[in-house]
Amino acid sequence: MSKQQSAICIQQLRFRYARHLPWVLDIAKWEMKIGEQVFLFGPSGSGKSTLLNLLTGMIVAENGSIEVLGQVYRKMNARQRDRFRAQHIGVIFQQLNLVPYLSVLDNIKLAASFGGSDMQQVKGYATELLAELNMPADVLIRQANQLSVGQQQRVAIARALINKPQLIIADEPTSALDADSRDDFIQLLKTVSAHHQSSILFVSHDRALAKHFPTELDMTSFKPVEATC
Amino acid sequence: MLIRVALKSLLNRRGSVLLTIFSVAISLLVLMSVDHIRQEARKSFGRSVSGVDLIVGARTGQLNLLLYSVFGMGNPGNNVAMDSMTTIASRKDVAWAIPISIGDSLEGYRVIGTTSAYFEHFRYGSKQALFFAQGNAFGDDDEVVLGAAVAKALGYKLGDEIVLSHGTAKISFHKHKHHPFQVTGILAATGTPVDQSLMVPLHGIDAMHAGMQQGFGQHNAEPESEQITAFMLGLTSKVAALQLQQQINNYTAEPLTAILPGVALGELWQMLGVVEQTLTLISILVLFASLLGLSTMLLASMQQRQRELAVIRAIGGHPSFIFWLIQLEVLFIVLSAMLVSMLSLWLVLWGLQDWLTERFGLYISLQFLTSELAYTLLFVLGSAVVLGLIPALKAYSNSLGQGLIQRN
């Protein structure tokens, strides 16, 4: 990967699901730098889901350009996009981040295997990450669905970081947590991500969480692409 | 990793998975046992008579004659005069003749009235002669030779005395008590109906019945001494068999039927073929139904597994990972079902083997692992994979179309 300044760089992006449907996204320019921790305010109906699908390469935009960590999805095939996501992006959902019947270690190993990490080192690194997240080491052998939601979300951070991604995308990761653990979770996410040099894009409809992040962005404030034709 | 995930996933849904395994295993058991018993029965039937060129009895269907003369099934309609046998046996192209007289029994086992020619000329399997495990052929009219299964089941030894009953039913009120027989020989096991038979001299039967006639005075008044049920012929030249069959069928002194055992067996297979094919068809349909059930089970579970599959996609798993995950689950289920069914088939055969041999003279071997079965199982595996395409492709396309975000 060449010298990259931006984690995400969007230019002239317009997206709609079908020709007869309205534009869902219309973004003239948005850039997020490497190492940034950004709060993206996305109320429902703002096209948040679509944006996240585009950023993770689940879907591909025909118009405009999306660069993630200097790579352009449109130039990759589906398998390459999945591979890229596994290696370079850690994803955290609001809940049920883990495959319920697998142990914590197996969940983390699965992510590592998709990312092509060295499987010999997974266990050691996972233990390290869990320690940073204030979790006992024996949580590794527990089945994912036996953990509390709070524990599951913290394991999700470890899972997201296992392939040493440059970018963490967290989609409402705290909405299933109570107020106290919410703040703890965000602090942990920020600290551990910073420690491992991962940028964070934190997406939520809850504006109150913006105070934790140095940069705040509002999806509704994106400038539209000027119609060229 | 894929294998590990598939195993854990199955373990997680062990209830429905176990039920599915059992349903597939039972249908496989039906399929395999129908096929195995069919083949073994054929083998067993085919072994029952060999080296006999013609079987002659009163005018009847060839299957009927074959069944009652060789397999001890059913009852003869009419008798044959001993004279007819003597006349036919005196022909130059006839090497030997074995008379057979049926009609009495011992605890459900058939008594065959015959001559020592029986032990000399009768052949089974691949032209194997009868062999005495103990003792020797009968000499006197009041001596009896036991088939292996009879001796074993009823516990008779050489020198024991046996009272026969009239008729072939297992329970008879007419016992020939006044004419007991002494065991002089016990035959080695043959795996044919011979094992379920007792052989007594023709004259012994006559003497026994004559005694009863005097004793009760109400038995069939026909002088039975001149009558037998059927006789088997060995020819000097096999080529003459067809011609002689023709001549016997046109025998003028009394209406007779002569059959070629091989041809009659062929007719038997043809008749049983329909039954066999029906059974096979049914077992294939049952198997198909249970494989469909497997596919349905997996398809139904897709609903609950949406999130899990979305997680796999989000952490970078390609939809093909999900496709193979489902197919692997299919394979695991079917392979375990195969193991379970083979183990239970072996247990069932092991449990039934002695009983079938003793009761019906059907020798069913435990050796059901033939190359043909291997092909059948491969075919089953193939069908399972094809049917597994339904849930696997469904999961594949779901996870392709599904975005990163899980909808609740």
Tell me what the structure shows:
The complex is a heterodimer of chains A (229) and B (408). Chain A is an alpha/beta fold and 229 residues long. In chain A, 32% of the residues lie in helices and 22% in strands. Chain A has a five-stranded parallel beta sheet. In chain A, a hairpin with a 2-residue loop joins strand 4 (63-68) and strand 5. In chain A, 41% of the residues are buried. The mean pLDDT of chain A is 89. With 408 residues, chain B is of the alpha+beta class. In chain B, 55% of the residues lie in helices and 16% in strands. Chain B contains eleven helices and 15 strands. In chain B, strands 1, 3, 4, 7, 8, 9, 10, 11, 12, 14 and 15 form an eleven-stranded mixed beta sheet that branches. In chain B, strands 2-13 form a two-stranded antiparallel ribbon. In chain B, a hairpin with a 3-residue loop joins strand 5 (123-124) and strand 6 (128-129). In chain B, helix 1 (2-12) packs across helix 10 (319-360).
Keywords for this entry:
heterodimer, A: 229 residues, alpha/beta, 5-stranded parallel sheet, 4-stranded antiparallel sheet, 6 helices, 9 strands, 32% helix, B: 408 residues, alpha+beta, 11-stranded mixed sheet, 11 helices, 15 strands, 16% strand
